[in-house]
């Protein structure tokens, strides 16, 4: 079956409703959910929460950036829950992000105590790095009603081809004669010959 981006948005709305009930006791307000092309591909920003102040319908919006669409539904749902934490805090007038985009202890508290997210601290962005806990993964896999095939079918090149800023992929080459290993970060495959063994290195 061929899926469209609108199908994914509808699925995310359904997941939002289910997670609202399971995690947030059905207290979150209705939101718009949108998928947009990532603007800064050198920065791994996967989602964003926008307040209703700029919208005539007075609905807040959660945006999932295309950098998140890597086919891993646990990752994408984890991004959605992350933004639902921002929604939860905003609706309670809790400031969980500083002006420099550092996610503060208020964000961490709701992630761990309410949203079943595991939090890791980043030196520059505070508690911004989150992932589903084992308990949340268990719920997603066993009880959440959603179409897994849709997520694996709608992958975006932004996510597939993403490399962190300053990232260089390292290829390893092995000489099977003397077991010498060479690391090289060039994307083009190299033709290297071992002068000691007089045989070509093989890429691992």
Describe the structure in your own words:
- The model has no long low-confidence stretch (mean pLDDT 88).
- The strands form four sheets. The protein has a three-stranded mixed β-sheet with strand order 1-3-2, covered by helices on one side. It has a three-stranded antiparallel β-sheet with strand order 7-6-10, with no helix packed on it. Strands 4-5 form a two-stranded antiparallel ribbon.
- 32% of the residues lie in helices and 21% in strands.
- α1 packs across α2 and α2 crosses α3.
- It is built from six helices and ten strands; from the N terminus they run αβββααββαααβββββ.
- The chain has two domains: 5-160, no CATH class; 171-203, no CATH class.
- It is elongated and about 70 Å long.
- It is of the alpha+beta class and 204 residues long.
- A hairpin with a 3-residue loop joins β4 and β5 (126-132).
- InterPro entries: SprT-like_domain (IPR006640).
- Residues 13-116 form the SprT-like domain.
- It comes from Spiroplasma cantharicola.
- This is SprT-like domain-containing protein.
List the helices and strands and how they pair.
Elements: H1 5-24, E1 31-36, E2 47-50, E3 60-65, H2 73-90, H3 105-113, E4 117-122, E5 126-132, H4 134-142, H5 148-153, H6 157-160, E6 171-174, E7 181-184, E8 193-194, E9 199-200, E10 202-203
Parallel strand pairs: 1-3
Antiparallel strand pairs: 2-3, 4-5, 6-7, 6-10, 8-9
Helix pairs in contact: 1-2, 2-3
């Amino acid at each position: 079956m061929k899926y469209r981006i609108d199908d994914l948005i509808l699925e995310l709305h359904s997941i939002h409703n289910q997670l609202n009930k399971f995690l947030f006791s059905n207290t979150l307000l209705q939101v718009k959910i949108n998928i947009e092309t990532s603007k800064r591909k050198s920065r791994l920003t996967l989602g964003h929460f926008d307040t209703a102040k700029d919208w005539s319908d007075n609905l807040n919006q959660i945006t999932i950036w295309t950098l998140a669409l890597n086919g891993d539904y646990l990752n994408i749902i984890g991004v959605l829950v992350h933004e639902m934490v921002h929604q939860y805090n905003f609706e309670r007038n809790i400031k969980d992000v500083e002006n420099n985009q550092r996610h503060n202890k208020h964000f961490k508290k709701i992630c761990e105590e309410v949203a079943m997210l595991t939090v890791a601290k980043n030196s520059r962005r505070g508690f911004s790095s989150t992932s589903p806990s084992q308990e949340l993964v268990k719920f997603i896999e066993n009880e959440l009603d959603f179409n897994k095939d849709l997520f694996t079918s709608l992958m975006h090149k932004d996510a597939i081809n993403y490399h962190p800023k300053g990232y260089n992929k390292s290829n390893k080459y092995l000489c099977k004669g003397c077991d010498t290993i060479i690391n090289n970060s060039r994307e083009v495959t190299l033709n290297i010959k071992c002068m000691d063994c007089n045989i070509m290195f093989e890429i691992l």
